[in-house]
Recover the amino acids of this structure.
């Protein structure tokens, strides 16, 4: 049981780290000239950065930003709830609240990544999706798996 708790603890911690990196790092879209994330666009040549502005897609960009921030918040809250439940939950009860927070984080990540995939760069010929975008999609199954594990897991002595 201790090994399982350590494994789920490390899975949750790594998911939080991946979520923070994918939210903050400037590599959602990369070309030879610039790299772009959900917050700013940085040019490789002179090292300057500018705020990302899409005239027609500003609402979509704000939805992606909000969803990624909410995913980080839900996952962090789930982590703290797990620590609290670890010491206060009675024997035989499930980690339901932690699982709910992880599943909410999963939902926010998939919403953000799906909106970004559908709305941005779908017609761009030059460039490719970056590491932060891939990390965001990787966080989706990780948060889903950990949320399901938390919902199934019972506390034992």
């Amino acid at each position: 049981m201790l090994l399982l708790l350590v494994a789920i603890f490390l899975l949750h911690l790594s998911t939080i780290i991946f979520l923070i990196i994918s939210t903050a790092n400037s590599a959602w879209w990369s070309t030879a000239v610039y790299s772009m994330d959900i917050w700013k666009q940085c040019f490789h040549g002179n090292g300057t950065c500018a705020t990302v502005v899409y005239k027609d897609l500003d609402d979509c960009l704000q939805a992606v930003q909000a969803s990624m921030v909410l995913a980080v918040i839900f996952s962090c809250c789930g982590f703290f709830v797990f620590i609290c439940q670890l010491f206060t939950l009675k024997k035989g009860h499930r980690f339901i609240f932690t699982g709910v927070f992880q599943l909410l984080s999963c939902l926010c990540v998939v919403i953000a990544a799906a909106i970004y995939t559908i709305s941005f760069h779908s017609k761009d010929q030059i460039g490719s999706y970056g590491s932060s975008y891939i990390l965001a999609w990787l966080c989706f199954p990780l948060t889903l798996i950990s949320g399901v594990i938390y919902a199934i897991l019972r506390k034992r002595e």
Observations:
- Helices lie at 2-24, 58-88, 96-119, 131-152.
